[in-house]
């Protein structure tokens, strides 16, 4: 079955960087579109970055210019490079996969498979 395992979270000071990874297994990675989401305490889960099966990407306005989504199809791994981190980026970050669609989307409802999440904490 599909499994998504995130790693790379941690604590960092404002202005710092982190790189999240999501190792996928149980399916042919390149046939799915992928996304990164985050959920802060008391808030809804929101889309951060996504990559479609065509390789095009989409970002939330709050992270444009600071975060970069990428993937290594040979390793079946999705990445999220996060630079210039801010305290408001603090959240649990999840990767997600969808087999039905083609273009990148930040819509939570589009994804049927989710990882367990990794905590990112940014201190001021």
List keywords for this structure.
124 residues; 4-stranded antiparallel β-sheet; 7-stranded mixed β-sheet
Helical element count?
0
Sheet with the most strands? 7 strands, mixed
Distance between the termini: 40 Å
Class computed from helices, strands and strand pairing: mainly beta
Overall, the morphology is: globular
Average of pLDDT: 95
Evaluate the radius of gyration. 13 Å
Taking pLDDT < 50 over at least 5 consecutive residues as the criterion, the unreliable ranges are: none
Determine the strand fraction and express it as a percent band. over 45%
Percent of residues in helical segments? Answer: under 10%
Element string (H = helix, E = strand): EEEEEEEEEEE
The total strand number stands at 11
Tell me what you see in this structure:
This protein is mainly beta. It is built from no helices and 11 strands.
Task: Please render the helix and strand layout as text.
Layout: E1 3-7, E2 10-13, E3 18-25, E4 33-39, E5 46-51, E6 57-59, E7 67-72, E8 77-82, E9 91-98, E10 113-114, E11 118-123
């Amino acid at each position: 079955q599909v499994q998504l395992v995130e790693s790379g979270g941690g604590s960092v000071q404002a202005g710092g960087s982190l790189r999240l990874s999501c190792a996928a297994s149980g399916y042919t990675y390149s046939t799915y579109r992928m996304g990164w989401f985050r959920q802060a305490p008391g808030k809804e889960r929101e889309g951060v970055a996504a990559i479609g099966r065509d390789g095009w990407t989409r970002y939330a306005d709050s992270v444009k210019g600071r975060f970069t989504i990428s993937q290594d199809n040979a390793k079946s791994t999705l990445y999220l490079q996060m630079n210039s981190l801010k305290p408001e980026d603090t959240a649990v970050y999840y990767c997600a996969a969808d087999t039905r669609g083609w273009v990148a989307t930040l819509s939570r409802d589009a994804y049927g498979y989710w990882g367990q999440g990794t905590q990112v904490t940014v201190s001021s």
